[in-house]
Amino acid sequence: MLATRKAIIDYLKSDKAKKLPKVDGKTPVATGSSGFAANIEDGYVLLAPKGGKPADGTRVVFTKGDTSPRSLPGGEYEIRRTVVNRKDDKGVEWSLWATGTGQTVTVGRMGGKLELDLDVTFKAMIKRGPKGVMAGGSFSADSGMGASIVKEKARIQPTWSVDGATGECTYG
């Protein structure tokens, strides 16, 4: 699985991968477009036309300190990916990556505002196998989209194993 994931990442970073259109604070407002804002300081949201494919989407990029609205044509969009970047008190970079089909965003004549739920949910899983007990889980973000937490460009793996362990558990 890791070799497959590496191949996909290598492809996406290559010149062969289709580059999606990008809208940021420097993009001029096009005729028929409206201003769009979000509660993301640093990162991006991939918006695809409702019912469309992520490949038909536009990356709406937000950079820290740039609060100008982004220019988007009016219509209904679905969030297909979000990336939110932050630094902790020690300057360590953390990112939340979420993919799937998220909430619907309507951009009208007066623009639109996206309020992402930036909380992360962890779903735990524990099972016994021939090699011992394995514990792990998965993260989800806004609208139940699958999520990854990244610390300094390394994805946090929420899985661990306990081999040959015995003991008691008490509740209360």
Give an overview in words.
- The structure is a single chain.
- This protein is mostly beta strands and about 170 residues long.
- The chain has one domain.
- About 5% of the residues lie in helices and about 45% in strands.
- It has one helix and 14 strands; from the N terminus they run αββββββββββββββ.
- It has one helix at about 1-15; strands at about 20-25, 35-40, 45-50, 60, 70-75, 75-85, 95-100, 105, 110-115, 120-130, 130-140, 145-150, 155, 160.
- Strands 1, 3, 4, 6, 7, 8, 10, 11, 12, 13 and 14 form an eleven-stranded mixed sheet that branches.
- A hairpin with an 8-residue loop joins strand 3 and strand 4 (about 60).
Structural class comes to mainly beta
Task: List low-pLDDT spans.
Answer: none
Number of helices: 1
What is the gyration radius calculated from CA atoms?
20 Å
Distance between the termini: 40 Å
**Number of structural units classed as domains:** 1
H/E topology pattern? HEEEEEEEEEEEEEE
Please tally the β strands and state the result: 14
Quaternary structure type: single chain
Mean pLDDT across all residues, rounded?
82
Helical proportion? under 10%
Strand percentage lies at over 45%
Largest sheet: 11 strands, mixed
Give the overall shape, derived from the CA principal axes: elongated
